Amino acid sequence: MTDPIVLKKPITAYGEVIDSIILREPVGRDYIACGYPVIIMAPNDAPTDEYDEADGAPLDAPAGEFRPNVSAIAKLISRLGNIPKGAVENMDGRDFNACLQAVLGFLGEMAPARKTSSMPVSTSPGRGNSIPEASST
Questions:
Q1: Helix ranges, the chain (H)
Q2: pLDDT in 10s for each residue of the chain, 137 residues
């Protein structure tokens, strides 16, 4: 469980005014039901101006970059905080962001994004993979 997240703007849930939310720690079934809270861009994802229909994440991230999966995070806030989806949708942006940070905090330390070289490398024999001979001059 997280410490209570004190809301800057209280929300109404189940006919009550809620001024703080406590999120329980997720288990596997929460991720299965809601989706994983981060998107890890695959090496073959091409840059584009389009957005993923499921979660609204831009599809232009470099390979290996982590992006929040806002749709899954909203579902997790609802499920882990035991509040209706509509209450999450109507949260003040700062409060939603605080809850988003708490959900991401459950993941622990993520592996860093892979670093790739911008220098092209040939894998064909005789095409730049051999060691150059020393000059005798």
A1: 28-34, 70-81, 85-89, 93-105
A2: 779 999 999 999 999 999 999 999 999 999 999 999 998 876 655 555 555 555 555 555 566 678 899 999 999 999 999 999 999 999 999 999 999 999 999 998 654 444 444 444 444 444 444 444 555 55
Residue 120 lies in a domain: no
Question: Does 40 fall in a domain?
Answer: yes
**Number of domains, the chain:** 1
Alpha-helical (H) ranges within 11-92 are 28-34, 70-81, 85-89
- Name 13's bridge partners: 16
**Residue 59 in domain:** yes
Q: Does the residue 129 lie in any domain? A: no
Q: Which domain holds residue 64?
A: 5-105
Whole-model pTM over 0.70 = no
| Rg of the chain over all Cα atoms, to the nearest angstrom | 22
- As separate numbers, helices (DSSP H) first and strands (DSSP E) second, the chain gives 4, 4
